[in-house]
Design goal:
The complex is a heterodimer of chains A (231) and B (416). Chain A is an all-alpha fold and 231 residues long. Chain A contains 12 helices and 2 strands, in the order αβαααααααααβαα. Chain B has helices at 8-18, 20-24, 29-36, 57-62, 70-73, 94-102, 104-110, 119-123, 143-151, 154-160, 165-173, 175-181, 191-195, 215-220, 224-232, 234-240, 249-253, 273-281, 284-289, 296-301, 304-310, 319-323, 343-348, 373-415; strands at residues 42-44, 50-52. A two-stranded antiparallel ribbon of chain B has the order 1-2. Classes of the chains: A mainly alpha (231), B mainly alpha (416).
Amino acid sequence: MSVESRESASVVRMSLMFRIQHILLMGTLLVLALTGFALMYHDNWLGSALIRLEGGVLFRGFIHCTAAVLLMAQMVFHAFYMLFTREGKRELKDFLLGKQDFADFSQAIRFNLGTASEYPRFGKYGYKEKFQYWGATVGTLLISVTGVILWAENISMKILPKIFLDITLIIHGYQGLLAFVILLFWHVYNEHLHPSVFPMNRAWLTGKVDAEWLRQEHPLEYEKLKQEEVL
Amino acid sequence: MKRMRTLAVPVVLAALLAGGKVLAAAPGVGDCLECHGDKTIEKSLPGGGTLSLYVDEKAYRGSVHGKGACTTCHSSATSPHGKLAKVTCGKCHPDAEKSYSSSTHGKTRAKGARDVAGCDDCHGKHDIRKAKDPAARSFHLNIAAVCLKCHKDRAIEDKYGLPGQQVMEAYEKSVHGMAATKSGLMGSAVCPDCHGNHAILPGDQPRSATHRQNIPTLCGKCHPGILEAYEKSVHGKGMRGGITESPVCTDCHGEHKITRISDPASSVFARNIPKTCSSCHEKEGISTRYALPKKRFSTYMDSFHGIALEYGMTKAANCASCHGFHEILPAADPASTVNKANLPRTCGKCHPNAGPNFAKGMVHVEVTPQKAMGVFVVRVFYTVFISMLVVLFVCHVGLELLGRRRRKRMEEGKKE
């Protein structure tokens, strides 16, 4: 990275609206994980310590449900924001999955293995970001639906056989574990440990990234911004 | 003790004063009390101690024998007299004598042991009163203290291998003990109510009132309604059918330490019930012998009910909430609370909406392909999926780091 390019300042990647949503999401997910895994792993020392810390099973449930309501409210807000605002619509377009993403993914693998000559050129969001975004969306939907079924147990019992509720419970728990694993291995790697951002991609706090970083990691977006004379 | 009198002095003196007249007829109570009414009269024992020979006239007159004569019991007594023959209560109380001699106390005493309860240890000597009399040693509310005099004595416990002091103390704190000592209830269970009185025997002997097979009937004396329910239960039928490991009252409730079910220390307190039931139902041998479903405890403890109960929500269903307690029946029995047909009603006690539809599927979910295919498949799927993702993520990271070196080299190559 040359001195000039570093000075060539930065560009907005996450607007304030998205930063707020991201922080809220992070907070609710953390609370949900702490209260949820406490129950899922109630029989090991860490789980039982967490339950006690959370004020017993009853209060743990209360915290979990409160955070869940917040998460679902955010999800609804986010959907409306993405579908009906100018900024949202633009972002959604950037996030749409296409054939190109699969081609990019395979090209990236081939390049890394040394069989392709060029590394794929990503737009604002490459396959890594899209996988994260849509994974989180599907996961949140699934975990919300199962969560509501379990929460409204008195109504669920009327409609559903117990075996269905058992499966719902298993899905809910493992879906949580899946989300946790993705966040730990994928998100933490991409946004913290990846050499281009280590120790952290600061966009979630400042909203900005270096133009040079954008040029290297998301060249199509960089070129687009150049054309639009934002850069 | 100021004066040490020998027995001989007053006896000889009295004989001299009274002359031959006394010697002819049996002495009256008054005659005996002339000497024995003296509080200081005593005899030296070979071991070095002394034995008081004083008889409290008031206590004697108030006793059940108070209108009789000293010579009824001390038939060899003359005035004066030397060592008297042993008192045999059985002369007038042959039934009591007979059952006493068959008891563990009687048998041990017959072998010459002197520190084992005889008639007088429980009933008194000159002050014997009827058991109905609140002043009697054997009165309902006094008898426990009489038994505990020996049975809380460590020397006696050790010598005869009796249950330790904690057991006896537990009785005093138990619901039965408290009913007697705290509330003064005549209906309280005191030692002889369970162990019997004269014919007392250790619980391991089949003829003992407290032998396993006699326990339900014994407790049923005061708890007849519960006995009736128990007799109909799978446990009661098993027990009556000669299956000795089928639980009796004490297996769940304990013996001396029985407390109210609302007491957190009780073995049948809501939170302790799973542990109490599983003390048999988690045993491999028992579930095999009686073809019972296994893993009832672990599957329960892993359920919402189990977790809630474990963390102190006693409102959550425990074993007894669904299976019942005294009237427990196997699920195959149409009268069982956990029979498929009755599940909506049983679950409905807490979950009013749990209808017949809900009752489909297992309650204790043992995650195996045979027992809960759906849950098993979902769990395996997620486990494989998550593991695979982790492996793929790690591979991806490795590949990407490899690719980055290549990219860097290419970038540098371009610049040059």
